[in-house]
Every structure is written in structure tokens, then in C-alpha cells.
Amino acid sequence: MVRSKFFQNFDYVLLAVVIIMILFGVLMIGSATRDVPSLADRVNSQITYSIVGVAIVLIMAAIDYRLLTSMYLWLYGLIILILGVTGILGTTGEAGAQSWVNFGVAGFQPSELAKILLIIVLAQQLALNVEHISRLQTILISLGFVAVPVFFIFIQPDLGISTLVMVTWFAMAWAAGMKWQHIALFALVVLITLPILWTFMEDYQRSRITTFIDPNADPDAAFNIRQALTAIGNGGVLGRGYMQGTQSQLRYLRVRHTDFIFAVIAEELGFVGALAVLILMAVVIFRVLRAARMAQDVSGSLICYGVATIIFFQTLVSVGMNVRVLPVTGLTLPFISSGGSSLVTLMLGIGLVESIVLRHNPRQL
Q1: What is the Cα–Cα distance from 284 to 25, expressed in whole angstroms?
Q2: Concatenated DSSP letters for 289-348?
């Protein structure tokens, strides 16, 4: 009876909505890669990773998340190890960053795994020091935990995930009770360090920012942004129809299966289709935040806040760069864009949330 009640706590709504988005993503990847020989395996690959992802959710749900939080220092060491190995043995991906490790049959992006494992590390580190969260020293120690992995990711170079990790740390520290004075200090430090970071950026990273500010500065770099806007405008209310988008099917829109898949959705399925995707994403975020409120301890709650932040921020940036309100960063649209590493690690995060939901009632532990 206890076991039966235990599994009744499983958030079937969360998993169902995630699976719906994954299936929808497979359909849109199929449209975006249609009749492109070099991308012919993208659909089958995404299906394979989807099956692996669902299995990971079920496995992670069965594992007590507190076992993982108790190992947070070991997990932190693992993060540093995989990022260090990537810097030495990593291969260069399509975007020009040395952020991939090739296993022969498939490649994997360790920084994607690192962003999820860091949530566990930060959740436990902040939970252990939550009574002293009002002290600047506590905030600086927490920031130090995240600074080393961010440095390794930044020099790959991967500005998108580096920014994502920092935003996740900020959201988790805020949820833990970081004082407004420390938030203001953090914002000031960011403003001071921006010119320094600019000098260490790669040329293509600086080009993305300057092109966002002034598209005429580099017409070639701005080409895809204009095509994305054209695709979204073409979609209207109901869209041009599945596999009927001119910008995607005639290949004017580049990287349409990853960075700019939202533009494909908006062109083929219109405002209604794009809005449906955002509503589904909002449901997922709401369910994760619900889990945060249900969690029986601080670390569980913070893990949920971290997962929700990643999904929200990636969605915000992915949609924002498609409609030209944010610069292009390479972050994928969660659960929908083509990408095995991103999908599997996001499903790992969903599995963590399910583990927390299953154990929110002390009587069933």
C-alpha cells in the first residue's frame, strides 16, 4: 500500500507534457531537415535520444535525490574532470567551440551535463549554509563553486551555457534568500567585468552582439536573423502548413533544426502553433515550480528552482533571438530543438524533479 501511494505522487502531467513537446519537436525537425542529405539522420537520432531521455526520467525518479545531494562534492569533482578532459581531448562542434567529446558512435557535450550536475551541487551547498545566507562570505563561497566550471565552459568557448549557468546560480541564490544588497553588488560586478569579458570573446561571439545592435554592420551575419523574422511574418495566424514554409523548405533559414526552430514553427503553424509551444513550456515550468513548493527540504526545493530556471532561460533566449530581441547565443529550445546532449540532460533534470515530488510526503519515505 505504501509503495502504491508512493507512485501515485508521480507527476504524470509533467512527464506527459514533456513527451508531447518532444514528439512535436521530432515532427518539426523532420520538416526542417527535409530533403537535406547531410541532416538525414537528425530525426532518427532525436527519436533515439528521446527514448533514452524518458528512461533516464524513470531511473532518476526511482533514485532518492538526497543520495545525490549527499555526494555533492564528488559530483563537483566530476564536473571539473569532464570539463577539463573536454578542454584537452574535446572536438570542435558546428559552432566552432571545442565543447564535444566523441565516443565513436556519438558525440556528447559535457557542458550540458555540467549545468544539471551543478544544480545538485549548488542546491546542497546553499542548503547547508542557508542560515548564513545573509552574509556576503556565504554568497562569495557559493559563487566560487560555480566560477571554476564557468571558466572552463567560457574558454571552450561557449558563452551561451556560461551565461545560463551564471543565471541559474543567481536564481538559486535568490531563492535561498540572498539579500538585495548582495544582488546590487553582483549586478555592479557584472557591469565592471563586461569590458574585460569582451576582450576575451572570440570574433564570432563579438560579431553576434554587434550584429544584434546594428544589423547593417555585418549583412552576412544578420542574414539569418532577417530570414527568421521573414519566416515568422510569413506564418500569420494559422501558418503556411506543415512542411510548407518557404524560408525553411527553400533553405534560406540556416540552422533551422536547432537555433532557429521556433521560426520554422511560427512560419508553418503560425501564431497559434507558436503560442501553443509557449503554453506547453509554461505548463512544464509551473509543474516544476509546484514541485519546489512541495519539496520537504531546502535542497530539493532549490533543485527544482534550478531546473525551472534553465528551462525558462533557454526558452526566453531561444525565442528572443528568433524575434531579434536578444543576440544569437546558440541555446536550444528545450525539448524541441535537435540535439541529443541538450535533450538527455534536460530529461535528467525532469527526473530529479520527479524524484523530489515522489518523496515530498515524509510518511511515504
Answers
A1: 15
A2: HHHHHH-SSHHHHHHHHHHHHHHHHHHHHHHHHHTTSS-------TTTSS-HHHHHHHHH
For residue 364, the tally of other CB atoms under 10 A from its CB is: 15
Mean pLDDT by 10 residues, the chain (365 residues): 64 96 95 84 93 96 95 95 83 62 68 94 95 91 93 88 94 93 86 82 80 78 86 92 89 87 95 96 97 94 97 95 87 92 95 93 54
pTM: 0.92
The torsion angles phi and psi of 295, rounded to 5 degrees, stand at -55, 140
What one-letter code names the amino acid at 85? Answer: V
Alpha carbon distance 307, 326 (integer Å): 22
Q: Report the number of distinct structural domains present in the chain.
A: 1
CB of 165 closer than 8 Å to CB of 118: yes
Crossing angle for the helix pair 159-176 and 110-128, to the nearest 10 degrees: 20
All cell numbers assigned to 220: 552576412
- 333-355 per-residue burial string, b: 16 or more CB within 10 A, e: under 16: bbbbbbbbbbbbbbbbbbbbbbb
Q: What residue numbers bound the domain in which 7 lies? A: 2-364
Q: CB-hemisphere CA count at 13 Å for 118?
A: 34
CA torsion 321→313→73→69, rounded to 10°?
-150
